[in-house]
Amino acid sequence: MTGFCYMEGVDIYTAYGVIIAENGHNDFLTFPALVEPDKNDWPEENGIEVDLSELTFQPREITVPFAVISGNNWKGFYQMLTAVGYRSVNIPVLQKTWNLRVSEMPAFEEFPAGTIFEVKFVEDYPVINRSYPIPTGTTPIACAISMDGIRLDKYGIIIEDGLDDLQRPAPLKKALTRKSSGISGQIYDTQLVRFAEKEITLKCYLNASQMADFWNLYNAFFGDLTKAGERTFTYAESTFYGYYRKSGNFDLITHAREVVLKFDVTICIVK
Hints:
By secondary structure, the chain is mainly beta. It folds into 2 domains: 1-127, Elongation Factor Tu (Ef-tu), domain 3, CATH 2.40.30; 130-271, Elongation Factor Tu (Ef-tu), domain 3, CATH 2.40.30. It has helices spanning 12-16, 74-81, 163-167, 211-225; strands at 6-7, 10-11, 18-20, 39-40, 49-50, 60-68, 87-91, 96-111, 114-123, 146-147, 150-151, 157-161, 177-178, 187-188, 198-208, 231-235, 238-254, 259-269. 12% of the residues lie in helices and 40% in strands. The chain is globular and about 75 Å long.
């Protein structure tokens, strides 16, 4: 059980008898949500006009399940976590280290055989890696959607669901409407028809042959997706323009040899 998680350079199993429980790595892999940019919604124009010149991101919340399987020193472990400053958290199997602070313990349960609990960490200053090689990933099937001219399978991405929503028409903008106490219903301007923006969620799998390749593909995908300016998406001979909003539901399916990560990514299609 040793060697799976180090905090402040200390093996948490050796020092406290604590391990990260099953599926406990998932939240470490989440990409931070975008701080919603300034925008204009002109009623006479389709879509919206968004200032994407400088993107900023929200803090990340990372909820990790732990289990005490040797002794019962969860109090000492939590006391270490809640000391002043940030905690250095290293997960060797993920080949990454994060600087996090503790927010709360949202779940706790004691059993005769041990204790299980969750700790919510916060990454106040998410690190966006902008240095990565050109993506050269491979997948069992080609991906039908491209981003800025690059097919998503080059990032190791397979789309499980969500492409139908890309082709779904955006909702209509509400035109000029007048109501009067002297009449039932309302007077609606049917002469101006314009479409609003729409939000789509793509359900994705990222596939890599090993962890180092996984991080290269992960950084390339999210790095390219969140570059300044609009992204151009091409699918089924149609072109769409949009930007990244958030990601979620990360599930590290396997990392033993090959790496497979399941996740959702939400994109705002502006026109």
